[in-house]
Amino acid sequence: MKRALPIATLCTLLFFNCKNTTEKVVDMASETTTEMHEKTTSEPIEIIPINHATMILANEDTVFYIDPVGGPEAFSDQKKPDYILITDIHGDHFDPKTLQGMSLDSTVLIVPQAVNEKLPELKVKSVIVMNNGENKDFESFAIQAIAMYNLREEALKFHEKGRGNGYVLTLDGQRIYISGDTEDIPEMRQLKDIDMAFVCMNLPYTMTVESAASAVLDFKPKKVYPYHYRGTDGMSDVDTFKALINKENSDIEVVQLEWYE
């Protein structure tokens, strides 16, 4: 079970155990590793990192699953999702068997058309297809679909423009960017007023830490969370990612969560 990490300035440290292991959150600002569980009442959005590209975002009223994969057992101790956002068709973002093993009768799926075409038969509340650049307003939040694609010639085969979606989720007055699989594309660099950004960096599929840091320095989120950083040759250097950003802009907080066991 992954424990929830509310998004806010760290105000309280608590120690806890989960399945005989302790979740570690690395405070990149101080470059130390501390066992912690952040509590706050001022900003009740929570992040629960599951693995790689998979996470849960939640406030008191609404639970979002982002790219749920890993089997239904990965979510057995979590609240049921009100909404599921899927970014792309690749197996680290979209797993039909995981979806089929979940109880989704009250869940809305938000997906690009390429994912919609591959969905298995599911008992869900509804499926909403969003294309790059589209906006959708809901009762208590809004979603914008952002392009995600490769730029390098040797990587164009991985993610073509228009197939997958990144997302900007506006919830409780905060704008949360989820990059999906992408490089440092103009659509990312031109983002505005982002409070939290989840930015990928893994080769050969997405981008280098240098490209990711360069893009972050352009759109200047208040906080950036490196995620999706396991590539074919191991983990990307998220310490270098932080150093590159804070050398140029110390106001951007780089937050490292436990994405990999």
Automatic annotation (TrEMBL):
SUPFAM superfamilies documented for this protein: Metallo-hydrolase/oxidoreductase
Pfam families assigned: Lactamase_B_3
Transmembrane domains' residue ranges: none
InterPro entries named in the record: RibonucZ/Hydroxyglut_hydro, UPF0173_UPF0282_UlaG_hydrolase
Gene3D superfamilies attached to this UniProt entry: Ribonuclease Z/Hydroxyacylglutathione hydrolase-like
Protein name: L-ascorbate metabolism protein UlaG (Beta-lactamase superfamily)
Organism of derivation: Gelidibacter algens
